[in-house]
Amino acid sequence: IAGITQAPTSQILAAGRRMTLRCTQDMRHNAMYWYRQDLGLGLRLIHYSNTAGTTGKGEVPDGYSVSRANTDDFPLTLASAVPSQTSVYFCASSPSLGANVLTFGAGSRLTVL
Amino acid sequence: RKEVEQDPGPFNVPEGATVAFNCTYSNSASQSFFWYRQDCRKEPKLLMSVYSSGNEDGRFTAQLNRASQYISLLIRDSKLSDSATYLCVVNNAGNMLTFGGGTRLMVKP
Fold it and tell me: What residues of chain A score a pLDDT lower than 50?
């Protein structure tokens, strides 16, 4: 089934540890995004990528980095996790940047202690 | 002020009721508007686009008021399966989607 796969589904992490959330899509979409969702704040854009080899900062990029080595994969890395990064992280994609319909992955629930 | 604001609810309604949610947006240059639906512990999915003239999809009606900068979603004959969080989404001139915090709906038997 075409779509987006995220891993892990959930993770508990000690503060200060490095963590990479994986995201893979098989729809050949050019644009990919990482959002975090927190109660009362909705979905906030962390980073995005227009196409393989390019990335951009969203609304809340600090403490996160991304890479886009190819069309399918868009990993999100927390270099040194902090408790305020406890959240649900959604990866999404669209045919092009700014497209109105996003396809989301199932989410990764991260708890930083 | 948030770019897209919604009443978080929850709205508790009986089956068969009609319920309406509003959403306000702050950027007058916003181009496109949508409602997404998110079930508990699931990912958001597009419910419907919102057109300037208003549009209907079965029991769901979406309307846009550009002058007052708000969007509405009306659900008629509510079903138990309508229980979810409804996210108001705006595509600004910068071509990125901005999500509201969501309105939670609970339909009771």
Answer: none
